Amino acid sequence: MKLSEWKDIDERFGYDGFLGVRLADGKTEFYVWAPTAESVKLLLYKSYKDVSPYLSISLEKGDRGVWKYVHRRPLKKTYYCYEYTYNGYRNIGVDPYACAVGINGEKGYICKLSELNPNGWDRSTYVKLQKYTDAVLYEAHVRDFSSDPSSGINSKFRGKFKAFTINSSRTPGGKRSCVAHLRELGITHVHLLPVFDYDRLDETNPRAAYNWGYDPENYNAPEGSYCTDPFNPELRITELKELVMSLHEQGIGVVMDVVYNHTYLPESSNLGKSFPSYYYRYREDGKLSNGSGCGNEIASDHAMVRKYIVDSVLFWAKEYKIDGFRFDLMACLDVDTLNEITRRLKELNPNAILYGEGWSAEAVELPPELAGSKVNSAKMPEFAYFNDNFRDAIKGAVFSDSSTGYVSGNYLLQKAVCDGLLGITDWAVNPRQVINYCEAHDNLTLWDKLTLSVGDRNDRDRRKMARLCAALVLLAQGVPFIHAGQEFLRSKPLGDGKFDHNSYASPDSVNSIKWGELDKNYLESEYITGLISFRKAHHLLRMATRDEVMSHSEILPSAEGTIAIHLYDEEEELLIFVNPIPRAKLFALPDGEWRLCVSDYTVSENALAIFCEAVYVPPISVMVLKKF
Fold it and tell me: Which PANTHER family match (predicted)?
């Protein structure tokens, strides 16, 4: 659709009222936006299996292109679709606003969401933070989290929403696993890979395949493969709410990974069926723009697409009490849409967290100054962005197995890492806009990357490198982000010395978290637990603005390849020393006595070691001292 065409559509048919299905006063109301359709019919089904509807009803076209129908009795537990006619051709699609769906998302389902709340839901509240930089994010895939038997989760709950409601699970060696482990670790938010209904996975036999979930089908309904009974449209709603409630009870917020940049297949998407061509961007040659790299790109700058995205985010935040949102490929979305999301969401929950990938996969059919990329962060001050510069500086470029980073021998990256520790980038206005990480679901895990890039180093050194990576992330200004299992050296092996770079469709044998590794690598996990606790205890590690950092930090002289940072204010002083070199290095100390708080393997505020004048930092390690 050309610019002039969609601008005209927006002007003539832009609508900001209710869309979807509403049960009220003994009636069932249907509203769907399809301004250029020749006709729209409501198709009602008694079962998810029915091929033909038991009733077909023509909707009435009203103002602003909204078709509506009011049924004079409640149609709860009824399945439905819409039949649209364009240019004489009919196609059947699920209501884009459907909040419940049948198996494989093939039909919408009518229910009253308030009747599906678990016991105690009213008491479940958003997690509160003083500021963004108080957050410690933990990225997990629902299925990966508990699908391995070593999770200690009952077999019928493994890989399901219900696994997050078990607070007492143990590894084979007796260590806390799953949610009990998260509580022990001290993270503030779990970032869940997509839990909306997605395509490319058969919910009737979910174990037959695997998917990360970045293939949107029904944006406002939960994914059925994570439900203990995917054939029950109501149960998937209740079980997802139980997951949120369970984490809230542990003081842990829930961040939802959302994918508003594309749909799986435009020709079969429910958006495309409701209004062909309007929901997507097109190039000058008439072909679909492909900024997502998945074959299409959502036109977020169109008024009714913007409304849809904003409505969807608010729905999840209100109905499921989601604490924050991580946006996939944000540069495919426009600045105005992202700011409207911020404005509306912050009215609902001032503590909501918003962040995402500040890039696109391919060229976007959107002027660069309007794209939600990290270079436009000043235009979107409430959003944070993944700091891929810091990631690559720490461990090496993610698209080259052999590339080494600062911790693994490339000491020329010292300045980039130092800047990362201070939350300084060429795109972020403030540290609160920076998500620091060294591992995520994409690309090799950190341990696999180290195995391939410095496989000639011994296991002890590679473990030290992994600990140093984690320390750099957790001691840096900004918001730390941990990939599930990173804390105990998660790996995704393929066999024959190979590792999975892109495990979006790989089997559980690759993707599942092997909780037995926590038994073997518990000291690594304890170290990260200690660092998280230390970060929470020291406000100097969680400054929110660049002015704060500039006023309360200085870079000290240090040996080539090493880093020395002094953080200070009226309340306390900290020294951060980083030595990636495989031999001990001597660091001069400012005047006074300095207590050891963080060393190679230990984090303690009560260490007896006190230093004056100088200190040796062990090989491939970080040391933090506090003025005594």
Answer: GLYCOGEN DEBRANCHING ENZYME
Q: Is the whole model's pTM more than 0.85, yes or no?
A: yes
Closest by alpha carbon to 193, among 154, 144, 158, 242? 144
Residues forming the active site: 328, 357
3-state secondary structure of 28: strand
- In total, the chain counts a number of residues equal to 628
- State mean pLDDT over 337-357: 98
Counting residues of the chain whose pLDDT is more than 90, the rounded percentage is 97
The three-point CA angle 569-478-421 to 5° equals 70
421 closest CA partner among 451, 445, 387: 387
If you average pLDDT over residues 213-220, what whole number do you get? 98
C-beta of residue 567 within 8 angstroms of C-beta of residue 541: yes
Please name the residue that has the structure tokens 């944070």. 384
Bridge-based pairing state of the strands 20-24 and 27-33? antiparallel
H-run or E-run covering 55: strand 55-58
Buried b (16+ CB within 10 A) or exposed e, 67-104: bbbebeeebeebbbbbbbebeeeeeebbbbbbbbbbbb
CA–CA–CA angle 211, 215, 221 (5° rounding):
95
Pairing mode of beta strands 216-222, 196-198? antiparallel
Say if CB 107 and CB 94 are below 8 A apart.
yes
Taken in order 599, 604, 608, 611, the sign of the CA dihedral is positive
Q: Write the pLDDT tens digit of every residue in 564-578.
A: 999 999 999 999 999
Write down the mean pLDDT value for the chain: 97
Residues in contact with 120: Cβ distance below 8 Å, sequence separation at least 6, in sequence order: 245
Q: At what angle do helices 459-475 and 446-453 cross, to 10 degrees?
A: 130
Query: Which of these, 303, 287, 428, 422, lies nearest to 362 by C-alpha position?
Result: 287
The position carrying tokens 């001292």 is 625
Q: Dump the DSSP string for 117-166.
A: PPTTGGG--PPP-SSGGG--EEEE-HHHHH-SGGG---GGGTTSGGGGG-
Rounded to the nearest 10 degrees, how much is the dihedral formed by the CA atoms of 455, 458, 462, 467?
180
pLDDT (mean) for 232-241 = 98
Residue 486, pLDDT score = 98
Dihedral in degrees, nearest 10, Cα atoms 484, 544, 596, 530 = -20
Measure CA of the first residue to CA of the last residue in the chain; give whole Å. 67
- The distance between the two most distant Cα atoms of the chain, rounded to a whole number of Å, is 85
The tokens for 45 are 């089904």
Q: Are 339 and 310 in contact (CB under 8 A)?
A: no
The upper half-sphere exposure of residue 235, i.e. CA atoms within 13 Å in the direction of its Cβ, equals 13
- What is the DSSP pairing of strand 137-140 with strand 479-483? parallel
> What is d(CA 50, CA 48) in angstroms, rounded to the nearest whole number?
6
Residue range 104-129: mean pLDDT, rounded: 97
> Contact 45/79 with Cβ under 8 angstroms?
yes
pLDDT at 1: 66
Mean pLDDT in residue range 143-166: 98
| pLDDT tens sequence across 395-424 | 999 999 999 999 999 999 999 999 999 999
Mean pLDDT, rounded, for 501-518: 98
Q: Is residue 304 within 8 Å of residue 326, measured between CB atoms?
A: no
Whether the per-residue pLDDT at 444 is higher than 80: the answer is yes
